[in-house]
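Hi R.,

As promised on Friday, here is the backbone we talked about, encoded as structure tokens. Could you run it through your design pipeline when you get a chance and send me back a sequence?
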């Protein structure tokens, strides 16, 4: 965990380590409520600042699905502060789990007279676990 902070030129405080450990426990995106539930004790302002700096430094990315509250997922190590992710955000209709799903080839879309800086694809359906 400390290597992530070192690469991002951040100090590895005990609280940051604790929050990062929570993200490492999950294979899917998680809402802020899960992070709050799992923290032993915390100050909400410190948590919000930690989430904000994790977002800014490219440690996590935010997922907003159709007006629902945000979910957060770990970025791949090579992710920078511009969060250029090449995956689909998938929400299961049964268990509500939000997952970042890698695909072989991300579609390239061009729009005449527009410049696309980022493209995000969201999908709903049944996750692997609920589909079996």
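Update: got your reply. Pasting your designed sequence below so it's all in one thread:
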């Amino acid at each position: 965990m400390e290597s992530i902070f070192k690469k991002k030129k951040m100090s590895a405080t005990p609280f940051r380590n604790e929050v990062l450990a929570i993200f490492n426990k999950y294979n899917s995106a998680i809402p802020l409520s899960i992070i709050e539930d799992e923290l032993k004790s915390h100050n909400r302002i410190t948590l919000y600042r930690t989430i904000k700096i994790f977002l800014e430094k490219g440690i996590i990315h935010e997922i907003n699905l159709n007006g629902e509250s945000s979910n957060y997922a770990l970025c791949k190590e090579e992710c920078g502060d511009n969060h250029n992710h090449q995956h689909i955000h998938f929400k299961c209709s049964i268990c509500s789990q939000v997952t970042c799903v890698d695909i072989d080839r991300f579609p390239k879309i061009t729009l005449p007279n527009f410049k696309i800086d980022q493209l995000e694809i969201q999908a709903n359906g049944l996750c692997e676990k609920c589909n079996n």
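One thing I noticed while checking it: The longest strand covers residues 87-92.

Thanks again,
M.
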